[in-house]
Amino acid sequence: MTPPVNAELGQISELFMLLASIAYVVALVFFVLDLVKSSSTIGSLETRLADEQAAPARSLAGVGARGGSSTAAAAGSPATADASMDYGSGPRRRSARIAVSLTVLAAVVHGAAVLTRAIAAHRVPWGNMYEFCTTGAFLVAAIFLITLTRKDLRFVGSFVVGLVVIMLCAATVGFPTPVARLIPALQSYWLIVHVSIAVASSALFTITFAMSVLQLLQTSREAKLLAGKADTARFLRLVPSALSLENLSYRLNAVAFVGWTFTLMAGAIWAEQAWGRYWGWDTKEVWTFVIWTVYAGYLHARATRGWTGTRAAWLSIVGYLCIVFNFTIVNIYFSGLHSYSGV
Amino acid sequence: MKQDVSQDTRDTAGAPGARADVVLPSLGVFGTLRWAWTQLTSMRTALFLLLLLAVAAVPGSLFPQRPANPAVVTQYIQDNPDTGPVLDWFQLFDVYSSVWFSAIYLLLFISLIGCVVPRAIAHLRAVRSTPPRTPKRLSRLPVYGTLEVPADRARDAGLTPSSAAEQAAAVLRKRGYRVDVRDAGTDRPSVGAERGLAKELGNLVFHTSLIGVLVSVAVGGLFGYNGQKVIVEGDSFVNTLIGYDSFSPGSNFSDDQLEPYSIRLDSFDVRFDREQESHYGQPLDFTANVTTQDGPGEDEAQQVLKVNAPITIGGTNVYLVGNGYAPVVTVRDGEGNIAQQGPVVSVPSDGLYTSLIVIKAPDAKPDQLGFVGFFLPTAFVDEKGVSFSRDPDPFNPQLNLNSYYGDLGLDDGTPENVYVLDTENLTELNSRNNDDGGIVLGVGQTYDLPEGKGSVTFDGLKRYVALDIHHDPGELGALVFSTLALLGLSASLFIGRRRLWVRTGEHPDGRLMVEYGLLARGEDHRLPAEGAAVEKLLADRFLVPTGSAGDHSHQDAAPAGTGQSHTNAKDKS
Ligand code: HEM
């Protein structure tokens, strides 16, 4: 028999969670500040350059090669950030550095919160909505930070950290649940396998969602610039070209899709053990399937003429909206076999 | 054929296709059929059908579904007399067996077969053929580099262009490339190499396995069966058709599929959370101790059945899907005889096991007797005088009943629902609303019915379990094929398919030049890294430093993620 739940430690965990949220909010402020500041720095730099050289804005050759995406990121073009998304190019961004440091700090405290909750409950920290949200948000932050060590994705920082803050708010405001043991239906090692991969894949999808939204914004901006119109969304200068966004989010989506496929299979195996059938079109199963099919469609779109670029990005966004819908509306309002203690 | 279409959609994206994408139908039946087939198996149709399938699956989560909840569907149609029948006509209560849903996935799978077969043939051909011929100018490939071996070293090592090509081929073979040395013996020999054919294989395995999964599901639907059974502590179940409370056979089911094993419920243990204020009374553990027997006269075995841990017996799996209380009740009739005795299954309606109960005594004379009410494990009375349960454990078990006499309506042969009492033709004896009041019984208590109609006694309490029993011969197939699909998918998405060529030659001053170029098929962001790795291996082989003069790979590699180089990285061959 497992020892009793440690309620005191559970409260410490909640305190950590609160501290982490505050740190994230401050990080978010700095990420936004960075966008504002850097785009104006680049802007004024450019004006000076333009004045000095009296040269017209560099042409955006080669635009529109594939489905509205553009290759405007040719080296040196100031219209978008370096497409390689490596560090070292562009002006120093102090706010961004502070923002990243704060995110690291927040994530460490957040990790401690998740860990103490797990220790307090003597089990994996994903047994109810509160825990899906908090652990999921931690994974989003962690995956983002890990990616940051290799690629300069600070431009999605405000987006990703914003989503983390929303997830934490949803957890503490929407689904507050004290630490508890698991109900018998959830007592299975498949909980560990199935839910962890589901949460990790969703975290990846969260990041690609942010990138797809930016891709759409960038695409329309590139088209505008090409048409000789004024640059109204200057902060997108920090963001790489639509095409490089598309390529990177494709790579992440591919990983997440394999994860989701595994989630679906592990869920089916667990359903077989718990309810006697591996697939029964329970509402939760329906939505897992819908999400899987939409992302399969996304992968197909990437190989279909006329469907790359903008349309693929839309599919990636729709897929993510389905995930959010599945997680919120379906979990809370739809009846089905899936029920979680506490909600 | 199909592959070509899909390939060049990616490969020469943006460039006007050399051939028309849509072949206009030539006259005649065959022409039209061929045209339809081409359309059906096109990538665009597959995409469309996939998205359509996603949309079509949604209504099944919005409306109650018959296979899962037949009673809820009936109720829904009753509650919505206007829209209900219309929705029903559109099969929105049977979405996943509906004509339109089936049509979508069947078309998708036909398209899938039409897609996979030609691609499998093309792939087989590709596996058999040698790596493609060496391009004239390697420097035009997206990743390119050269190494040079100084004249004296080349001379000392006895390196000629041909032997260098052979050595390069050996290096590449070791790295997993299929290689082919051509123009050996000439002054410009070259090596053609290719790796990552498993990418396409993985894709084919993935798509084929999806067909396997579908077939397995169909096999389960045809030859499987499942049934439900409630067993009270001390009682047994025998696996025969009449043993089940409800039973749904697959379309090809026959009785002799059932093996006559038996299961006896010896005891059922329940544990609730008693530590935590916030989750007080939440269930922590359900354990059914059962005795099983593979058939009459076989050895008995003790087994433990838990949620998430089914037992396997006689080709079926037995699952613990529910539990509750079965109060033991004795009903005596107006003539003083026992009309009904034994445990009566009650249906829990909340987490505190407030349970609905119906007791029928059709053998009672002179009038049949019926009771409806609820069972409370830990009864309390609130300030308004209403009884309620405060705990799921039986600390103060209590029966609250209304009683009726008259015709229970069990004799006309219509199937009865044991959990419902139809009071239409009955006369009320006891209820909260009449003078005699409702019946309230603690364990061991007896209540004498008004008008000398008989009595009811609450003798004691037992627990029961609700079991689901399943046989699904497609299950293993579904598991195997979905695992294959997962492996194939990973191979397809993560293996890079690359072509690589090395050409050697001798400079007039005696230096030996080795140049190489790489090309990816499809998306491959690791191509520059592969180029660097190969360059290092070749440099080690020829004992020269990497990055020697003329190496373009770094210039080319730097903007690898950019549109320009990306487009280049697409296979143009
Ligand atoms: C049951 C329906 C289908 C599903 C769930 C599905 C799913 C997928 C997925 C997830 C991928 C990406 C992974 C990979 O490259 O292996 C993919 C790729 C592919 N599928 Fe399908 N597919 C289906 C039907 C079809 C059909 C009907 C066709 C033929 C028209 C087709 C042709 C392809 C091709 C050519 C690729 C490779 C794309 C590339 O090169 O990236 N698929 N499919």
UniProtKB/TrEMBL annotation, chain A:
UniProt superkingdom: Bacteria
Residues annotated as domain Cytochrome c assembly protein: 126-338
Record's bilayer topology term: Multi-pass membrane protein
Primary subcellular site in the record, as a coarse category: membrane
GO molecular function, one term: heme binding
UniProt keyword list: Cytochrome c-type biogenesis, Membrane, Transmembrane, Transmembrane helix
Name the record gives this protein: C-type cytochrome biogenesis protein CcsB
InterPro entries, per the entry: Cyt_c_assembly (IPR002541), Cyt_c_biogenesis_CcsA (IPR017562), Cyt_c_biogenesis_CcsA/CcmC (IPR045062)
One BP annotation, GO: cytochrome complex assembly
Subcellular location: Membrane
Pfam family, one: Cytochrom_C_asm
Transmembrane regions: 15-36, 98-120, 126-148, 155-177, 189-214, 252-271, 286-301, 313-334
GO CC, alphabetical: plasma membrane
